[in-house]
């Protein structure tokens, strides 16, 4: 089994360079089975969120895998209705309990959805200071939202998890550059554009050249942009396929060809004008 490479966060922690997403796996048994399948395949980063409704199943999958806790990097997220200080602390405790964990590797503010997000960030700083989340970060933050965090606090988020795939590349270039500049690792969500482009002829041609699939080319592209993709699948064959991306490299021209597929496709809501 291939050991997944890691990327260093601004806390000094090492995060796997590829992860496993669990959105839309809201059946607890399915979540448990998918997480077990991912961990058996070699994934060591598991991404969930309170709003996915599967923290119990994800937690069971982790426990049942038999893999030592310290070898797995586990992320969950604070939902929008808990963005005041006390609610954020309480929401964290509840997530931890549902996951049946003693600490988290990464806790994220899910969306810059309310004016209270600064309070939520203070709560995350406390959770981090108490050692309950080894790393804290944000998700769906634009440059404006990140500048606000940097102006108001001396803790730089370790991670910003954003929508990132070839079809949104142009729209995400500025936030990618900003995060690189500030030492914030970008996690790429919906890295397969939620499987809506699996017939794309340009991606198909690149995939053929490397003896790989379109999904593998999209994940490799995200990795070569320095991001950490977190593809989701409940299918054991596709879970394996998505993990098998460390034995080939896209040439500079291929990266550019794929960059040029960008057509402003957005799968999740646009956070630009959020509060
Ligand atoms: P995604 O990973 O881009 O795509 C998932 C879809 O692609 C599923 O329908 C899956 O179906 C299919 N698929 C997976 N592997 C495939 C392959 N090799 N070939 C063909 N189809 C394949 O989309 P996502 O779930 O939106 O994003 C991934 C993760 O990012 C989420 O699960 C979640 O953890 C995170 N996320 C975070 C946010 C946020 O706001 N922070 C938002 C969205 C997502 P099967 O399951 O049937 O394989």
SSE layout:
Layout: E1 6-8, E2 14-16, E3 20-21, H1 28-41, E4 45-47, H2 55-65, E5 73-78, H3 85-99, E6 106-109, H4 117-129, E7 136-139, H5 143-152, E8 159-163, H6 169-182, E9 185-189, H7 201-210, H8 214-224, E10 228-229, H9 236-243, H10 252-259
Parallel strand pairs: 3-4, 4-5, 5-6, 6-7, 7-8, 8-9, 9-10
Antiparallel strand pairs: 1-2
Structure description:
The chain has 275 residues and is α/β, with parallel strands linked by helices. The protein has one domain (12-196, 227-246): TIM Barrel (Alpha-Beta Barrel), CATH 3.20.20.100. Helices cover 41% and strands 13% of the residues. It contains ten helices and ten strands. It has helices spanning 28-41, 55-65, 85-99, 117-129, 143-152, 169-182, 201-210, 214-224, 236-243, 252-259, and strands at 6-8, 14-16, 20-21, 45-47, 73-78, 106-109, 136-139, 159-163, 185-189, 228-229. The strands form two sheets. Strands 3-4-5-6-7-8-9-10 form an eight-stranded parallel β-sheet, with helices on one face. Helix 1 (28-41) runs parallel beside helix 2 (55-65), helix 2 (55-65) crosses helix 3 (85-99) and helix 3 crosses helix 4. The longest helix is centred in the middle third of the chain and has 15 residues, at 85-99. It is globular. The model has no long low-confidence stretch (mean pLDDT 97). Bound molecules: NADP nicotinamide-adenine-dinucleotide phosphate. The site of NADP nicotinamide-adenine-dinucleotide phosphate (NAP) has 27 residues, from helix 9.
């Amino acid at each position: 089994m291939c050991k997944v490479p890691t990327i260093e966060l601004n806390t000094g922690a090492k995060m796997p360079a590829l992860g496993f997403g669990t959105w839309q796996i809201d059946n607890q048994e399915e979540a448990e089975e998918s997480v077990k399948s991912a961990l058996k395949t070699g994934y060591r980063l598991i991404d969930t969120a309170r709003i996915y409704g599967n923290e119990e199943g994800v937690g069971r999958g982790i426990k049942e895998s038999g893999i030592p806790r310290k070898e797995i990097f586990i992320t969950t997220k604070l939902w929008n209705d808990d963005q005041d200080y006390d609610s954020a602390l309480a929401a964290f405790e509840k997530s931890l309990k549902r996951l049946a964990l003693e600490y988290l590797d990464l806790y994220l503010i899910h969306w810059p959805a309310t004016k209270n997000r600064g309070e939520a960030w203070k709560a995350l700083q406390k959770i981090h200071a108490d050692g309950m989340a080894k790393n804290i970060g944000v998700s769906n933050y634009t440059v404006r939202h990140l500048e606000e965090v940097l102006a108001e606090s001396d803790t730089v988020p370790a991670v910003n998890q954003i929508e990132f795939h070839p079809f949104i590349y142009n729209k995400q270039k500025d936030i990618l550059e900003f995060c690189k500049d500030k030492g914030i690792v970008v996690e790429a969500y919906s890295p397969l554009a939620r499987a809506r482009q699996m017939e794309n002829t340009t991606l198909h041609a690149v995939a053929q050249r490397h003896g790989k699939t379109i999904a593998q080319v999209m994940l490799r592209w995200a990795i070569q942009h320095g991001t950490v993709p977190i593809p989701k699948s409940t299918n054991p064959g596709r879970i394996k396929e998505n993990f098998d991306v460390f034995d080939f490299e896209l040439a500079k021209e291929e990266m550019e060809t794929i960059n040029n597929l960008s057509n402003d496709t957005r799968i999740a809501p646009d956070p630009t004008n959020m509060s």
